Amino acid sequence: MRRLLVGRLLAAPLVLLAVSTLTFFLMRAVPGGPFDAEKPLPPAIKANIEAKYRLNDPFWLQYVSYVGGALRGDLGPSYKYVNRSVTDIIRAALPVSAALGALALLVSLILGLIFGTLAGAFSGTWVDRTALFLATLGIALPGFLLGAVVILVFAHNLRIFPPALWEGARYMILPAVTLGIGPAAYLARLVRSGILETMHQDFVRTAKAKGLHPVRVMLFHVLGNALTPVLSVLGPLTAAFVTGSFVVEYLFSIPGMGKYFVDSVANRDYPLIMGVTLVYGAILYAANVVVDILYAWADPRVGRE
User: Fold this and answer.
1) Cα(116)–Cα(45) distance, integer angstroms
2) In the chain, what are the domain boundaries?
3) How many Cβ atoms from other residues are within 10 Å of residue 47's Cβ?
4) Which of the four CATH numbers 2.40.30.10, 1.10.3720.10, 3.40.50.300, 3.40.50.2000 does domain 90-258 have?
5) 20 to 30 A Cα–Cα from 41, which one of 88, 104, 217, 241?
6) Are 1 and 296 contacting, i.e. CB atoms less than 8 angstroms apart?
7) Using one digit for the tens of pLDDT, what is the confidence trace for 134-169?
């Protein structure tokens, strides 16, 4: 376990350096620039702006300057949000995105475990078919469509929840459900498969032969072993929360990192793109490290490999 953790931590700077390098040069490879608007700026004004942000320096010098600033915790100024640094924007937006991701993860785990367990416990019945139908529907529906539907139904028609913004607990429900439905559907199918596979193991048949109640068998013998594969997908599911949050935050006008990332790409705000990408890369890497540790703890054979 210790060797696994040390190896992951030592690799983290190299991973983030690779992410920042690829992002930096891919942005520069795309035609156009951050100050190329539909109505072109006068050449003298554009030259002054580029000189202010050092955009007229060679690419390698811009890259070295950015990496040096990032190592000091300075991610540079935003081109779009004047008088605001990228660090300030991320400091304000990250807690919002973290709260949304945590709520979406909670929704995914609760719905996925409930529907997956019901489908596995009542395999072949109408309960199983209904759960599979809902899971398939949840996987198939894209986030922007699901978000529009829940806004239409629960905000405009039923008027139960507010349609947008992030100003209290009631504002968090619809975005969290929208973001969590897709991963919940995937988890439900995974839990169902794990339960069906575990039900045929010898120790389950032995527990049934001892006369234990079916609920006790399911809770204390089947679920504990069937949920082990769920740990291995928490890392990829974190990626799903990150990419899905782009659409959800923009759709619900949530001032999180996803909304800023979409705006920064549309406006070619290079420092903001780099900053948000680095933070997302660090989050994804940390999530995968946590998953590796949990999986090694659940199955000690992994830590010895």
Assistant:
1) 61
2) 90-258
3) 13
4) 1.10.3720.10
5) 88
6) yes
7) 888 888 888 888 989 999 999 999 989 998 888 888
